[in-house]
Design brief:
single chain; about 120 residues; mainly beta; three-stranded antiparallel beta sheet; about 0% helix; elongated
Length: about 120
């Protein structure tokens, strides 16, 4: 059962800059919220960034090279509580399209998962 959701369902995962080039590092930002009626113990989110050679949004039927895969700790959340803004710094990555996929509460299986596909421009 999913208890942990993205705090902003309209923009669940966002890069720290709207325009990115292959010489830039950037932050990937998201927040989790406990939408259940019980406390949620501390949990771990997972951020996976994959290269999408065919361009955004890519296909779920194809294997894509993983360029980043890391986990991030979240605190316990009471019902209705929003966790801290997660904002790991990643990159730089070569120009192209990338999926930023976040799985909330990856370690417990009680979290939501979604992605944002971004384009990284060639450096000037």
């Amino acid at each position: 059962m999913t208890d942990v959701f993205f705090a902003d369902p309209q923009n669940p995962i966002v890069p720290s800059s709207a325009i990115l080039s292959e010489s830039d590092s950037f932050q990937v930002q998201w927040s989790a919220v406990n939408r259940s009626d019980v406390d949620v113990e501390a949990f771990t989110d997972r951020l996976v960034i994959t290269s999408i050679p065919e361009g955004c949004p890519g296909s779920d039927d194809a294997d894509h090279p993983v360029v980043f895969d890391e986990t991030f700790d979240e605190p316990a959340l009471a019902p209705g509580d929003t966790g801290p803004l997660q904002k790991p710094t990643v990159g730089p990555f070569v120009a192209g399209s990338y999926r930023l996929t976040v799985t909330l509460a990856n370690d417990t299986g009680a979290g939501d998962e979604t992605f944002n596909c971004i384009t990284i421009d060639p450096a000037n």
